[in-house]
Amino acid sequence: MTAQFSLEFFPPRTDEGIDKLRAARRQLAQLHPSFCSVTFGAGGSTREGTLATVLEIRGEGIDAAPHISCIGSTVQSLRAVLSQYRESGIRHVVALRGDMPSGTVDAGEFRYANELVEFIRLETGDWFHVDVAAYPEVHPQARSAVEDLAAFKRKVDAGADSAITQYFYHPHAYVDFVNRSRRAGIEIPIYPGIMPITNYEGIVRFSENCGADIPRWMKKHLESLRDDAAGLRAFAIEAVTRLCEELLAAGAPGLHFYTLNRWGATLAICRNLGLVRAAP
Ligand SMILES: Cc1cc2nc3c(=O)[nH]c(=O)nc-3n(C[C@H](O)[C@H](O)[C@H](O)COP(=O)(O)OP(=O)(O)OC[C@H]3O[C@@H](n4cnc5c(N)ncnc54)[C@H](O)[C@@H]3O)c2cc1C
User: Fold this and answer.
1) How far apart are CA 63 and CA 78, in angstroms?
2) Does the beta carbon of 110 lie inside 6 Å of ligand 1?
3) Which of 2, 124, 154, 162 is deepest in the core (most CB within 10 A)?
4) Among the listed residues 27, 40, 99, 32, the one whose alpha carbon sits nearest the alpha carbon of residue 66
5) Would you say the CB of residue 95 lies under 6 angstroms from ligand 1?
């Protein structure tokens, strides 16, 4: 089976952001991704931007999958989003719970992502290929690793076709998670999410929020290069390339890159991996 490589973007909010994303996509088109996914803000806050970005990517001849998140949403609003996706000919979604903006208390009619997957299957049958999120290093709000795996299994039992993981930098966390998933009877493909690193402060803050552990040796090197942009970039590209190589060697079915709408580091890592190739 050939490995599947995909890219994730967020919907830009300004004209400048739209231009920046278009420029990034032009560069990353060299990778011929299997698909590009586009994130969705809590409570549908980016709904139109998500769809517009997906349609633009599809117009460029690349398959695209919008995310859909359920926290803070109603049955009616999610039904409307699914209809809009379906009417636009979209066949692939990434289904998430999402995070409540701080200070918000009304979780809406869906509490967890398995309820959203169930709803998608109930409303639209097999129309969509449904991806869900998975957490090799355990979701930060999970009561335990065992309960988090059980939550993942509920999403799969509700009808998820494949999963994309939160990013991580310990390859063994992924291998162990896949092994535990298989022992729990989860058979769907689990694609590692890869976060290229371009900035010390950004990756440390982001990782603390989402529960991704930066190995001590990596963090120490990044810290010592925090004022040397070129040095940090070279170190991080090398380290993330090695991570990707180890994951593919361990049997990962592909890689999903969190691009943050930038192209340089993702393209450099993919070049190292030999993924820049002529159109299939
Ligand atoms: C690939 C990927 C893409 C993402 N894209 C987006 C996006 O577009 N928009 C966005 O807002 N966020 C996005 N996120 C972030 C995601 O929304 C957050 O990580 C969120 O906190 C959890 O979403 P989930 O779908 O994994 O939730 P769930 O699978 O519902 O899990 C959330 C937490 O609840 C726990 N849990 C589940 N069921 C139960 C239960 N019955 N009882 C008690 N606890 C339970 C789980 O263990 C976990 O701790 C993405 C994350 C990933 C990995």
Assistant:
1) 22
2) no
3) 162
4) 40
5) no
Instruction: Name the residue at shortest CA distance from atom 45 of ligand 1.
Output: 151
Three-class SS state of 118: helix
> Which tokens go with 223?
């810290």
pLDDT tens by residue, 130-164:
999 999 999 999 999 999 999 999 999 999 999 99
**If you search the block for the tokens 């169930």, which residue do you land on?**
118
142 lines ligand 1 (CB under 6 A): yes
DSSP 8-state code for residue 100: P
Å from CA of 30 to ligand 1 middle = 31
Rounded-to-integer distance, Cα 177 and Cα 149, Å: 9
Say how far apart CA 269 and CA 196 lie, in whole Å.
8
Tell me the CA distances in angstroms from 112 to 132, 187, 224, 239, one per residue in order. Answer: 11, 21, 40, 34
φ and ψ of 132, to 5 deg: -130, 170
* Residue numbers annotated as active site: 8
pTM for the model: 0.97
In the block, which residue shows the tokens 């980016």? Answer: 46
Q: How many CB atoms lie within 10 A of CB 143?
A: 11
